[in-house]
């Protein structure tokens, strides 16, 4: 639960604060990288959950399986980069990373032996879908760069995560 919650929080924070982060650390010429950072932010939550399944495979003495999956993900990412970068530039590279991380997560969870808590999966999926819908609405309303709204959504997410017990006091 902690990895999912921290990954979701970090993803949302990067999406909402991308303009601020880029402006603070880089010159105005890096403006196009705001969208690339927002795309890459999607891989953060996937990466955090992948860590869980990778560690699970290690605990289950399936290091080679974990290694082969990680190597496949790296080669898959390279292949996607070769296809997407010439056409879509930095955004293609960002999407290649997100897609490769998603495939990596699917393979890791497929090969790991774990008790699938359907309630936990449903709650987390509902949070991700709800946040996706909110982000799309904010994007089309032109409010995605509003830091007050972004901060409010992060706090609301924290409250909801506690309320639906995805984040608990003992965590």
Short account of what is shown:
It contains 5 helices and no strands. It is flat. It has 171 residues and is an all-alpha fold.
Distance between the termini: 8 Å
Derived structural class: mainly alpha
How many whole angstroms does the radius of gyration measure?
Answer: 17 Å
Summed over residues and divided by their number, the pLDDT gives a mean of: 91
Helix-strand sequence: HHHHH
Number of strands: 0
* Major β-sheet annotation: none
Poorly predicted regions are: none
Helix content: over 70%
- Binned strand content: under 5%
Shape: flat
Notes on the protein architecture:
By secondary structure, the protein is mainly alpha-helical. It is built from 5 helices and no strands. It has helices at 2-25, 33-59, 63-111, 118-141, 147-163. Helix 1 runs antiparallel to helix 2 (33-59) and helix 2 crosses helix 3 (63-111). The protein is flat, with a radius of gyration of 17 Å.
Task: Give short descriptive properties of this protein.
single chain, 171 residues, mainly alpha, 5 helices
């Amino acid at each position: 639960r902690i990895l999912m919650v921290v990954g979701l929080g970090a993803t949302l924070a990067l999406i909402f604060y991308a303009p601020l982060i880029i402006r603070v650390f880089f010159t105005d010429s890096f403006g196009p990288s705001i969208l690339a950072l927002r795309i890459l932010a999607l891989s953060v939550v996937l990466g955090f959950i992948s860590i869980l399944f990778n560690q699970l495979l290690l605990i289950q003495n399936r290091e080679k399986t974990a290694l082969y999956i990680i190597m496949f993900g790296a080669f898959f990412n390279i292949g996607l980069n070769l296809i997407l970068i010439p056409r879509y530039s930095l955004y293609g590279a960002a999407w290649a990373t997100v897609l490769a991380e998603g495939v990596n997560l699917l393979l890791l969870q497929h090969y790991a032996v774990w008790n699938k808590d359907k309630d936990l999966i449903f709650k987390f999926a509902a949070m991700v879908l709800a946040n996706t819908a909110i982000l799309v609405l904010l994007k089309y309303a032109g409010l995605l760069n509003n830091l007050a709204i972004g901060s409010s959504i992060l706090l609301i997410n924290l409250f909801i995560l506690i309320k639906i017990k995805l984040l608990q006091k003992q965590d």
